[in-house]
């Protein structure tokens, strides 16, 4: 046998597995259908700026083990994500915190903010939030929901807030202190030199074949190799035979501009429904760039269809039930391990992807 493992997909999950396997003397072949490694954390340098080609990624974790792990592959800067939300002509700080509330209501103390929110919640009578709308309303009240959540979420997911799971909004902190840090995690930053370098480092000394589609050669490859790590879409692996899982895709309009500083922040969310994009990313601000020019990307969210790039699994009840059926097929597919955002059909952050990969390594490579 020429290889111990075939790894399908050179994203974060596949690269962590390959790195760990190689460390233990296993021979891996990584195949990747795109013409570059790093999956959706891929960065491309434009005018000296690391451009996050498949959407902005900010590394954050509370898990010291994971933080130490990624720091083997890159040094991280001290970027702290503090997005701005723009609703019509109004600007607010995110996540929802005292800066947001004082701007919205002209108040200054946590007591005043809590009082206003509780007055708004009282009228709604939500006991046990069943969906994103009820969850959001019962946390922050109607004003914040209407201005900062409803339009953005419906654009991002293409679904009514009532049809989305509550957990999506629980990703965002809610605080009654003046603190614009988007994450509650202990560790946060952007890798100096970009994410692609991390993946390249993980894959050093490992055979990688780009522009290679696994599914087109599945039969052959499955026969030749004992064990496969598959990080593509789980439903596509099974030729969608139980039905199609829903994903959201994103289209980026990236522009190089002849200005030094376009929007004064890395992330500006456009929370009103009428503006077709969800946010504008100004990449240089992730790394405190001082270049004379700038690069921005507008993000347009759309429903995934065959042929598009999948970005976000839509983890509502219907899809999670279908996924559970695919998971049963996957568990019976003895030689294949499914992982990553697409293989596990989970709205994973990067630290959770690494954690999941390391856990599989522990079992598989013990
Ligand atoms: N969200 C919102 N308004 C915002 C930003 C986020 O309502 O200005 C909601 C929206 O439902 C979104 C979710 O919070 O899908 C999670 O946002 P996050 O920024 O974590 O999404 P990601 O960066 O993963 O796209």
Structure description:
- A hairpin with a 2-residue loop joins β6 and β7 (90-93).
- This protein has twelve helices and 16 strands.
- The model has no long low-confidence stretch (mean pLDDT 97).
- It starts with a strand and ends with a helix.
- The longest helix has 26 residues, at 132-157.
- 34% of the residues lie in helices and 19% in strands.
- The chain is α/β, with parallel strands linked by helices.
- The chain is globular, with a radius of gyration of 22 Å.
- It has a seven-stranded mixed beta sheet with strand order 7-6-12-13-14-11-15.
- α1 packs parallel to α12 and α4 crosses α5 (132-157).
- Residues 85, 94, 148-149, 152-153, 156, 168-169, 171-172, 269, 271 line the site of uridine-5'-diphosphate.
Which labels suit this protein?
binds uridine-5'-diphosphate; 7-stranded mixed beta sheet; alpha/beta; 12 helices; 5-stranded parallel beta sheet; 34% helix; single chain; 366 residues
H and E string: EHEEEEHEEHHHHEHEHEHEEEEEHEHH
Range of strand content: 15-25%
* Spans of at least 5 consecutive residues with low confidence: none
Largest sheet: 7 strands, mixed
Largest sheet, spatial ordering of strands: 7-6-12-13-14-11-15
Average pLDDT score = 97
Bound molecules: uridine-5'-diphosphate
Q: State the helical fraction.
A: 25-40%
* Backbone shape: globular
* Total helical segments: 12
Count of extended strands: 16
Q: C-alpha Rg, in Å?
A: 22 Å
Oligomer: single chain
């Amino acid at each position: 046998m020429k290889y111990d493992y075939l790894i399908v997909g050179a994203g974060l999950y596949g690269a962590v597995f390959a790195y760990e396997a190689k460390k233990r003397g296993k021979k891996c072949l990584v195949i990747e259908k795109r013409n570059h490694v790093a999956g959706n954390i891929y960065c491309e340098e434009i005018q000296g700026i690391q451009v996050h080609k498949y959407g902005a990624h900010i590394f954050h974790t509370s898990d010291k083990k994971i933080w130490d792990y990624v720091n083997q592959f890159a040094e991280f800067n001290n970027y702290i994500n503090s997005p701005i939300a723009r609703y019509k002509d109004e600007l607010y700080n995110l996540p929802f915190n005292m800066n947001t509330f004082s701007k919205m209501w002209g108040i200054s103390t946590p007591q005043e903010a809590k009082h206003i929110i509780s007055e708004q919640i009282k009228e709604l009578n939500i006991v046990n939030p069943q969906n994103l709308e009820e969850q959001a309303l019962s946390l922050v009240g109607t004003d914040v929901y209407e201005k900062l959540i409803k339009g953005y979420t419906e654009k991002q997911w293409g679904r009514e807030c009532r049809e989305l799971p509550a957990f999506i909004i629980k990703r965002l902190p809610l605080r009654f202190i003046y603190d614009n840090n988007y994450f509650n995690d202990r560790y946060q930053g952007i890798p100096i030199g970009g994410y692609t370098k991390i993946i390249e480092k993980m894959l050093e000394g490992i055979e990688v074949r780009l522009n290679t589609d696994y599914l087109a050669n599945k039969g052959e490859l499955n026969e030749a190799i004992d064990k496969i790590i598959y990080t593509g879409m789980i439903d596509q692996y099974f030729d969608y035979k139980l039905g199609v899982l829903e994903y959201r895709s994103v289209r980026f309009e990236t522009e190089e501009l002849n200005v030094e500083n376009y929007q004064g922040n890395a992330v500006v969310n456009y929370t009103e429904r009428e503006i077709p994009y969800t946010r504008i990313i100004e990449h240089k601000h992730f790394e405190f760039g001082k270049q004379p020019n700038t690069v921005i990307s507008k993000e347009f969210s759309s429903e995934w269809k065959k042929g598009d790039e999948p970005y976000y699994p839509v983890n509502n009840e219907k899809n999670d039930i279908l996924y559970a059926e695919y998971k049963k097929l996957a568990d019976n597919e003895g030689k294949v391990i499914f992982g990553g955002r697409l293989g596990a059909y989970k709205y994973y952050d990067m630290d959770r992807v690494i954690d999941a990969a390391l856990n599989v390594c522990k079992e598989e490579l013990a």
